[in-house]
Design a protein that fits this description.
Strand content of chain A: 15-25%
CATH superfamily of the largest domain in chain A: P-loop containing nucleotide triphosphate hydrolases
Helix content of chain A: 25-40%
Number of domains of chain B: 1
Structural class of chain B: mainly alpha
Structural class of chain A: alpha/beta
Strand content of chain B: under 5%
Number of strands of chain B: 0
Radius of gyration of chain B: 22 Å
Helix content of chain B: over 70%
Largest sheet of chain A: 6 strands, mixed
Strand order of the largest sheet of chain A: 6-7-8-3-9-10
Radius of gyration of chain A: 18 Å
Number of strands of chain A: 10
Order of helices and strands of chain A: EEEHEEHEHHHEHEEEHH
Number of helices of chain B: 10
Shape of chain A: globular
Distance between the termini of chain A: 42 Å
Oligomer: heterodimer
CATH topology of the largest domain in chain A: Rossmann fold
Chain lengths: ~260, ~290
């Protein structure tokens, strides 16, 4: 049951042990304590295979913690079931690479959650989908299947699919991976607009959490940063704080970033 | 719809048993096979029950999405296979029915024609052949499609969107395949009986069309129609369950999909024979 009145956090993890999605016996993070307040924009960094995706999937309620408690909008995610569908739909998730449905067109992919959750016909959902596709510059690709669309546009289509139900929390797994400079810049700008209140969401600021293996493109005074390293979740604070940190792993991550600019 | 539902059917023990080295003695090998069979049956049973539960409880959920998907599956498991079934009906008529008609009439056993045709074509060969053809044509496609979807993370994507994968991916396939096999079996039986008479007629068998169909009609009882419907629906349900179970519940990597498809077809054949045996018992005791 939701108890928002007592718990204002959008995400609250207490002493959580995170296991791998692919291998439940593999622990990727232990004793994770993390609170995300409404409207915050978090960037979680870490090397590849450090468990960022698993942490995000756990925070989205797609998997259970091995230990500890995970609350999203005040509801424990291990009780997310049919009765908590409304809570689940307040959370949007963008997978790395998009994970679009290959047998559906881009427009059908975007329409699917809307049609399924609101029991709409294709015609009834068409206008909403068209507006969203236009907003994300996806209209030329609307009738193509994902395999016929470049990876950068597939990520945008996945973002459109996650936004179609107007979530209050959006989790993005490595959204800049594989994007060219133009698409990367567009993505960062668009996420910033969502964070401040986009017209699509009626001007309501969206709570955002993104994972990355390169902190540099995410430089912004108002964002909060955290690091996942050697099974530990370390909140780092603002950009100013991570720039001055002496943490070897952060410096290593920044150095790596300098070698392979995004 | 609890997160990552597909994982609920994963049987880690079957993976361990399959990947461990061959046992030293033959009895150990047989024991391992027995354990694998029991674990698979446990997984299939759970999967079947959950699928039935989803079909019954979510009948009115997202009708505008699910009903078109059911129609698509009926086309895929039924309408699209009609040309092939037409050919098989002709072949079955020429190879089996025509010869039977010709031999029985030439040996003065024409009185047994009706009951022979009903037992061979209506009760046994028609439904089983239809099931086997759908298993190989559509069942394998099910395993590959679902296995690929699972390997590419589409199942997790559905769960992230609050869409029950059992409702969206499995229920339409199960309903479509059950109705598809039922319809195709009816067409196959009618086609085989008609082409069988044609073949016998061309061979000069001394039997008129009216006598041929009267004998078959006399040999048929209401039980044949009822059990034919039940049997074909059961074939469709079990084939869909076996193939969807292997596609959705087992493979995690793309390279495993083809191997699992072969396993699913083998198990599908075994399950169909078991269902057939069950209906033979029903016929014998009715």
């Amino acid at each position: 049951m939701s108890d928002d009145t007592f718990n204002p956090n959008v995400i609250e993890l207490r002493d959580v042990t995170v296991t791998s999605m692919r291998n439940a016996a593999l622990v990727v993070a232990e004793e994770v304590n993390w609170s995300v307040l409404p409207g915050e924009f978090w960037v979680v960094g870490g090397q590849q295979y450090s468990g960022k995706s698993d942490l995000l999937m756990l925070a989205a309620g797609l998997m259970n913690p091995a230990n500890g408690t995970c609350h999203v909008f005040g509801s424990a995610t291990d009780s997310f079931g049919e009765a908590q569908l409304a809570e689940r739909l307040r959370v949007g998730f963008v997978f790395q690479g998009g994970q679009l449905f290959n047998r559906l067109t881009v427009a059908e992919n975007v329409a699917l959650p809307l049609r399924y959750q609101k029991n709409l016909t294709a015609v009834e959902s068409a206008r909403t989908v068209e507006v969203l596709l236009e907003m994300l510059e996806l209209k030329p690709f609307a009738d193509l299947t994902p395999s016929n669309v470049a990876a950068s546009w597939r990520v945008r289509a996945a973002l459109a699919r996650a936004l179609v139900l107007k979530p209050e929390l959006l989790l993005l797994d490595n959204p800049l991976t594989g994007l060219g400079a133009r698409h990367g810049q567009w993505m960062l700008r668009f996420l910033e607009q969502l964070s401040h209140g986009h017209e699509w969401l009626g001007g309501r600021p969206l709570t955002l959490v993104a994972s990355t293996d390169d902190f540099r493109p995410w430089q912004h005074a108002q964002r909060k940063f955290a690091l996942l390293h050697e099974k530990k979740f370390i909140p780092l604070g603002s950009w100013t704080e991570i720039e001055t940190t002496g943490h070897a792993a952060v410096r290593e991550l920044m150095a790596l970033a300098e070698e392979t600019p995004n | 719809m609890r997160g990552n539902l597909a994982k609920a059917f994963e049987l880690a023990n079957t993976q361990v048993l399959r990947s461990s080295p061959l046992p030293k003695s033959y009895t150990d090998y047989l024991g391992r096979k027995l354990f694998l069979f029991l674990l698979t049956m446990q997984g299939l049973g759970a999967f079947a029950l959950i699928t039935l539960g989803v079909i019954l409880t979510k009948n009115n959920v997202a009708k505008n999405v699910i009903h078109p998907r059911i129609r698509q599956e009926i086309v895929r498991s039924g309408v699209a296979l009609l040309p092939m079934f037409g050919f098989v009906a002709l072949a079955l008529g020429f190879l089996v029915v025509g010869q039977a008609v010709s031999v029985l009439t030439k040996n003065g056993a024409a009185n047994f024609l009706g009951s022979t045709m009903v037992i061979v074509v209506v009760r046994e060969l028609g439904p089983l052949l239809a099931a086997m053809l759908v298993l190989t044509r559509v069942g394998t496609a099910n395993v590959i499609e679902l296995g690929t979807s699972r390997a590419l993370g589409e199942v997790e994507a559905l769960e992230a969107l609050g869409i029950d994968p059992m409702h969206y991916l499995i229920a339409p396939r199960v309903i479509g395949m059950a109705l598809g096999i039922f319809s195709l079996t009816v067409y196959l039986i009618i086609g085989a009986l008609a082409s069988g008479f044609l073949f016998a007629f061309l061979q000069g068998a001394p039997m008129r069309l009216g006598d041929y169909y009267r004998q078959i009609a006399d040999a048929l009882s209401w039980l044949d129609f009822a059990l034919l419907a039940l049997k074909t629906l059961a074939f469709g349900f079990t084939i869909a369950i076996v193939t969807c179970y292997h596609g959705l519940a087992q493979p995690l990597r793309l390279e495993e999909v083809s191997r699992v498809a072969v396993r699913a077809v083998s198990q599908g054949v075994i399950v169909c024979v078991l269902v057939d045996a069950l209906f033979i018992v029903l016929y014998l005791f009715s």
